[in-house]
TrEMBL record:
One Pfam family this sequence matches: ABC_tran
Protein name per UniProt: Aliphatic sulfonates transport ATP-binding subunit
Organism placement in taxonomy: Bacteria, Pseudomonadati, Pseudomonadota, Gammaproteobacteria, Enterobacterales
Any one GO molecular function term: ATP hydrolysis activity
Keyword Translocase applies: yes
Enzyme category, top tier: hydrolase
SUPFAM superfamilies reported for this sequence: P-loop containing nucleoside triphosphate hydrolases
Domain of life: Bacteria
InterPro entries assigned to the protein according to its UniProt record, in alphabetical order: ABC_transporter-like_ATP-bd, ABC_transporter_ATP-bind, P-loop_NTPase
Length: 157
């Protein structure tokens, strides 16, 4: 896999992208060009394909047909570190904040989890039980800290 990363100077191109789940066509022949450096918001009705589009762009799913390009390179060839934060909390309410952040981590997970909590200003909350906004930050910590976080695309709905 090519380890090159997307940068601010790379346009995204979607050519005739279709995504189907069984008999349900969610995206049909979508053509989209996002120029280099552009910020894009994806908005629409519930069930309109916003999350599907974002999963395709993140490389978490493959299109049924069509192509996704970063410049002239297939998008799937340059994605190797995708993280995803779900729209709803995916936490274990009976576990502490630090234990939830550490889910899926191996080895010295506790130190890595504490660093992630410190990165979002929650270093003193590790032993507590998550609630409200802390749950969102906790879920973001589970997605993994990044030295150079990209601008996010937010799916409304």
């Amino acid at each position: 896999m090519n380890t090159a990363r997307l940068n601010q100077g790379t346009p995204l191109l979607l050519n005739a992208v279709t995504k189907q789940y069984a008999d349900n066509t969610v995206l049909n022949q979508l053509d989209l060009h996002i120029p280099a450096g552009q910020f894009v918001a994806v908005v629409g009705r519930s069930g309109g394909g916003k999350s599907t589009l974002l999963r395709l762009l993140a490389g978490l799913e493959s299109p049924t047909a069509g192509e996704l390009l970063a410049g002239t390179t297939p998008l799937a060839e340059i994605q190797d570190d995708t993280r995803m934060m779900f729209q709803d909390a995916r936490l274990l309410p009976w576990k502490s904040v630090i234990d939830n952040v550490g889910l899926g981590l191996k080895g010295g997970w506790r130190d890595a989890a504490r660093q992630a909590l410190a990165a979002v200003g929650l270093e003193n909350r590790g032993d507590g039980v998550a609630c409200g906004a802390v749950r969102r930050a906790e879920t973001a910590c589970r997605a993994g800290p990044r030295a150079d976080p990209p601008a996010g695309i937010i799916a409304a709905g």
